Amino acid sequence: MEEITKHPNNTFCWVDLATIGVEDSKKFYKAIFNWDYVDEPAGEGMVYTMCMINNKPVAAIYEMLEDQKKMGLPPYWLPYINIENVNATAEKVNSSGGSVIAPPMDVSDNGRMSVVQDPTGAVFAVWQPNKSIGAAYKNVPGSLCWVELGVFDIAKPKQFYSEVFGWSGKTEKMGESDYTTFFFSDKPEDMAAGMYQMTKEMKDIPPHWLTYFMVAKTADTLEIIKKHNGAVLMGPMNIPGIGTFAVIRDPQGGVFGIIGE
């Protein structure tokens, strides 16, 4: 298991969960990913819980802010894209039809971040690393392995993510629908993310980024998820050459995906 020391620019590097019950969330994710935890103070009574593999961080969990709870927001996983300059990226987001939800801010000496929204309304964050690069592992069991954008209109996101992050998008048929793979360089192995077109049946679901974690065996993990009161929203479905995936809702309402054998 090789530790990451630097994430390529314009790739996903981190993910955190805003939840409505940190201790319950910790128990659930410990059961399925075998994470260890380190609680770190984050100011004003807030605790940012690092989710650890081999004593290295791969994700985080924290209590959702009170104003978000009052707005009725469900718990959510927020993915972060590694970039060189947060201020410049925030300006690109605005000029490319997106919007800045939380303006650029320093996170102590760990790095600098901003929360933004693309033209479809999908929310994500950008991260300019300093002492913290983000996840120490990706593409190993219990860690981030893929991030996927669900939208109704694929044209706007293609243009937006090209302008802001330099991604190129290749759209192909996958079953009865179109699937776009984003690349952060000209190399075919340098995949940044995926994008699928949501159907009319999904009209009540807003455009969103969905975080996937790798597991060893999808079927085994689903049994653990059900045992710990998680719900399977989609799947399991096998994609030849990739693996078997499923979309899950945790007991507090956070949605994520898993991919494994």
User: Strand arrangement, largest sheet?
Assistant: 2-3-4-1-5-8-7-6
**Which spans of ≥5 residues are poorly predicted at pLDDT below 50?**
none
So what's the CATH class of the largest domain?
Alpha Beta
Structural domains: how many = 2
The CATH topology assignment of the largest domain is 2,3-Dihydroxybiphenyl 1,2-Dioxygenase, domain 1
CATH superfamily of the largest domain: 2,3-Dihydroxybiphenyl 1,2-Dioxygenase, domain 1
Q: Assembly state here?
A: single chain
| Portion in strands | 35-45%
Class derived from helix and strand content? alpha+beta
CATH architecture descriptor text of the largest domain: Roll
Report the count of strand segments.
16
Distance N terminus to C terminus? 18 Å
Largest sheet report: 8 strands, mixed
Give the number of helices. Answer: 5
Share of helical residues: 10-25%
Roughly how many Å is the radius of gyration? 17 Å
What does this 3D model show about the protein?
This protein has 261 residues and is of the alpha+beta class. It has two domains: 118 residues, Roll (2,3-Dihydroxybiphenyl 1,2-Dioxygenase, domain 1), CATH 3.10.180.10; 117 residues, 2,3-Dihydroxybiphenyl 1,2-Dioxygenase, domain 1 (Roll), CATH 3.10.180. 18% of the residues lie in helices and 45% in strands. It contains five helices and 16 strands. An eight-stranded mixed sheet has the order 2-3-4-1-5-8-7-6, with helices on one face. Strands 10-11-12-9-13-16-15-14 form an eight-stranded mixed sheet. A hairpin with a 3-residue loop joins β14 and β15. The two termini are 18 Å apart. 36% of the residues are buried. The model has no long low-confidence stretch (mean pLDDT 95).
